Amino acid sequence: MPGQHALLSASAAHRWMHCPPSARLTEDIEDTSSIFAQEGTVAHSLGELELNYQLKNIPKREYTKELRKIQAHELYSAEMPDHVAVYTGYVMERLAEAKSRSKDALVFLEQKLDFSAWVPEGFGTGDTVIISDGVIEIVDLKYGKGVEVSADDNPQMMLYALGAYHEYEWLYDPKSIKMTIVQPRIDNISTFEMPVEDLLKWAEEELKPAADKAWSGEGELQAGDHCRFCKVRSTCKARADYNLTFIESKRDEDNTLKGIHLLAPEEISRVLDMALEIKNWLKDVEENALQAALDGTRYPGFKLVEGRSNRVITDEEEVVATLVMEDYTEDQLYNKKLKGITDLEKLVGKKMFEQLLGPYVIKPPGKPTLVPETDKRPELNTAADDFNLEV
Ligand code: SF4
Fold this sequence. Notes:
9 strands; binds iron/sulfur cluster; hydrolase activity; hydrolase; DUF2800 domain-containing protein; PDDEXK-like_dom_sf; DUF2800
């Protein structure tokens, strides 16, 4: 179902269950797929193809043709097949186990799973669903390696499980749901199993009320680690308040002189605990503000300037040849590789350096940077300014 995207998607369930209004707040903001997400899509295509071939769903000729297409993708890499093989191997192992219990066990790949009975217009795509007597098993490939993802009480997996239950309940009378995340690049295989009745209880008591609120844009904005992938993470006031008021709200009741003026070890522990979230938040705000400034937004007290940059040698061979002609020995010019610009400048003197090596050294333009207006560097003309001049 290319291009179709549910407002209350399974992959964002952790966010909209904790912060229901975030769903409507972000619905009109364009999705920008990161390079990591695109790489994950290539790995998923490879996993699906390998499984279809191993399950004899496609002939060798089709397999080879499709494999070549995947290999031609710019984000395909030499190590991708080994990582994906961990996932496909796990699926084949689980399928063999399911077949040993019930001969007519079924496996579905990239299956659309409809959980709209609990979540308005809710659907998602399960990488692998295995159905056998009494057990539904979901296996999800996660190709990222930034954050280890656990299957324990994972709402994305539980939503897939609900979709699979809804679809296949009549077939095998499932009693238990087994959910596994395979994250091969960091050796993480995480499994969580729960009785179907617990899954349905969670769906009625926790999921459905949160989904109804999220659908109608009600509830409280609530910041936390789930803000990480939210599309308004850099401009959200609730997230800003959460980070800015953190230290004040967490101060211990200690009215001694030290207690009033100095942070206690327990308070520092809490700051350390929050450090990653605060760093991520600052990075999000800075990146967003820089892009907006490049697009023409002006921030009071700030301006865009060219960032600092370092000189680089454009032709190492010519630099060496020039200095050897001037009687410098190779020992003087090299450590293990050619010495850096500052060392060479010290060696030959600033004036001679400019005279002899000037043609082989450039200073590339620095990246645009947002700095206080008091900074001495001249303000950059943005593309937006140029455009305004033309009209
Ligand atoms: S950034 Fe966080 S608090 Fe703000 S809307 Fe998104 S999830 Fe909610």
